[in-house]
């Protein structure tokens, strides 16, 4: 099972690393691994907890940064909406949107998560996707329409967002949790509605995997975001599961939306 980890070097044949160094790499779900030195990146422990390099300063944070900055490109006064907004990707998307002068609206599951987005992360509004009147609430929060929608969910959330997208809206797509595992979709087929909206409103929908932007933008991301995390201007939340045996349950819980922030498994 693939998975990124913070690991301690126990033996090294590379002059760039020595025993005791902390590194970040795609170690996988295991206790030990042999890796090529070119595939690991050193992590400095200090003012920023090392677990942050798996979340806000790791793959999820960079996904938010790259998707919003390169594809979404929000402008002051525009409305940015993000699904799964209390997760490690969505929470940073909203905070970065605010820093550009845009309005940030989060979509999350449950009143406590919605409250956290507004009171702790500074979102302008948050809509509970479990609410019966969710589409109406989202519409009321977006009186001028949506200019950037950061897609991580799909399904019924997309159905509520689609009618609100403005002309020339940008839609970075980094995940579609509602469609994972081949779960059959019931009800109306929204493909036709989506494609008509793409045509009539000149929408930009761009799927991406974070790794395609790493060579050109990852160092820039760390240089810009690390100081903001260190001084508390960028906030994040983690949920720690103890023991490698807890990994499957933690992973399934994340897919079902039971997590609050970045889920990290502490192996040792």
Walkthrough of the structure:
This protein starts with a strand and ends with a strand. The protein contains 8 helices and 11 strands. Strand 4 (79-82), helix 2 and strand 5 (103-108) form a beta-alpha-beta unit. The protein has helices at 59-72, 90-99, 111-119, 134-141, 155-161, 191-200, 214-230, 247-255; strands at 5-8, 22-25, 41-42, 79-82, 103-108, 125-128, 146-150, 165-173, 204-207, 238-242, 262-266. Helix 1 packs across helix 2 and helix 4 crosses helix 5.
Fill in the keyword field for this structure.
31% helix, 268 residues, three-stranded antiparallel beta sheet, alpha/beta, six-stranded parallel beta sheet, single chain
Summary?
With about 270 residues, the protein is of the alpha/beta class. It has helices spanning about 60-70, 90-100, 110-120, 135-140, 155-160, 190-200, 215-230, 245-255; strands at about 5-10, 20-25, 40, 80, 105-110, 125-130, 145-150, 165-175, 205, 240, 260-265.
> How many DSSP E strands?
11
Task: Give the strand content.
Answer: 15-25%
One letter per element, helices H and strands E, the order comes to EEEHEHEHEHEHEHEHEHE
Distance between the termini: 18 Å
Provide the residue-averaged pLDDT: 92
Q: Major sheet, described briefly?
A: 6 strands, parallel
Give me the side-by-side strand order of the main sheet.
Answer: 6-5-4-7-8-9
